[in-house]
Each structure stands twice: as structure tokens, then as C-alpha cells.
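Let us work through a complete example step by step.
Step 1: write down the sequence.
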Amino acid sequence: MTAGSRKFGTSPSGRYQVIEGIISPVNDDYGKKGLVSARHRIAMAKLALETSDWIRVDPWESEQETWTETVKVLRHHYSESLRLLQSKNELMKNKRPIERSTEDSLSYQHSVLPELKLLCGADFLQTFKTPNLWKEEHIKEIVEKFGLVCISRAGSDPAQYINESDLLRKFQHNIFLVKEWIQNEISATQIRYALCRGLSVKYLVPDSVISYVAHHNIYTEESEQKNEGDLLQPLKLHNTTVNPLND
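Step 2: predict the structure and record it as C-alpha cells.
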């Protein structure tokens, strides 16, 4: 997820200034094959982001009693961003003008509501066509109210996925396609596959994460079988069998 305000500036489109990136690990109850405990996934994500000054890990989704639909997670984070903005504006309002920096004063006078986008790989758009994986009204809310930022992936044609969907085509102005000029096809699935077989993943993930995995013996052939044969939680609700997205 990426939180942003409608300002001209640092994004590839020039329409937004990115405020922060949010990584929201999915709940353990999601049911994906090989999904390790959220406790470990959160810890590894935090280690991987130690050098980042704009991306953070948020445990809210993983801490819920059960799996939470994506649109509800987006609603939560958007509400939180509005709450923080309101708190900041209240703080600024109570400050004497002499106590405000020039930057704070300009920000207070020209504050705009933040927007929240769902950041995903281009192949993510394909999952909208998977029977019973998504509710139509949820897809509509995601693309209409929030919007998507889709990163290109080899073998995926996001423009085609959009054109094939009446709903996505209607809101394509709110779907931002980002072309990666330096292709990086490394996936979590490949990393897990290597770890399970004792292969080196040095230079593919941070050393601190590699050490954590080794210390806790997380990715093994046994862990890769977790949830095998189970349906993803959204599909359990519809009692429908379908191949889940592999990454």
C-alpha cells in the first residue's frame, strides 16, 4: 500500500507526493500454502526495511482474529491516515504562529486529504477474474475510491487485463501502470524454494533476514506443506476450488 497526497512532485506520474509506503502482512488464517506465522513475517519485513526512511510494516491486518478482506484493510489504513492528519492540524492550530516553521505553516495552510493506493504486481489484476475470489463491490470500491499502482512483470499485460474488464476500464484513470525498466523477476516463491533446498539466497535478501531465517529454521520442506490442499479463506466462504496466485 502506498499513502500519498495529491501534490505535484516525486511520483513517476508527477501527480502525487508519496508520504509513506505500508507493508501489511496477511493474517495467518488466509490459508495460503506455505504461509509461515505472521510473527516471523513481520519480524523479517522489519529487518528488511531497517534502511528505509519511508516504508513501514503495519501489523494490524495480521493481528485480527481472522482473515480480513483487502478492502477493509484499505479502509482501516485510510481512516488512520485521516486521523493522523486531523491530529497534526489540531496541533498546528494550537501553535502560536511564531512557533511554526515555514514548512509547517505552508503545509497547514495548503493541506489536502491524503489518498491511499494499493501497490501490486501487474499479474494481480488477473485475480479479479478468479471466480469467487473477490466480491464485485469490493473491486469497485478499491479501484474507484482508492486506486491501484501496478508494477510491470514479465509475461503480464496489465493494459489488456484492464481492457477486458468493463469495471477496470471504467476506472482506469485511477489505475497507474508503472514500467520497471530494470526487470527484477525475483519472487518470494523462488526465495522460499531455494531456502527449502539449502541453496544460498545471499544478495537476494538482506543478510539480517537470512540470519533470522536460519536462527528460527523457518522455511523448510515441512513448512512449505502447511495449508496444502486447503482453500484460501475467501474461497472457503464460497466453497469453490481454484488455483491460488503463486506469489
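Step 3: interpret the result. The CA atoms of residues 65 and 233 lie 13 Å apart.
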